[in-house]
Amino acid sequence: MILFVEILRAVASVLLIISSGFYLRHLEKTKKQRKLASLEFVMYFTIQFAFILFAISLLIAVFF
Prior knowledge:
Blueprint: H1 2-33, H2 38-63
């Protein structure tokens, strides 16, 4: 049962990373066309910050 929960959590994490990547790409295209709205601007930097934190946590997990 615990293994099943761990697998579900891993799948959910992967899906969140992929979908946020696609949304970040959409926001970058929108940014080229027009100025981003305030919520879009906040989401743009939040997703970038989350990817940076994810990369740092992954590096820490691999090397320590």
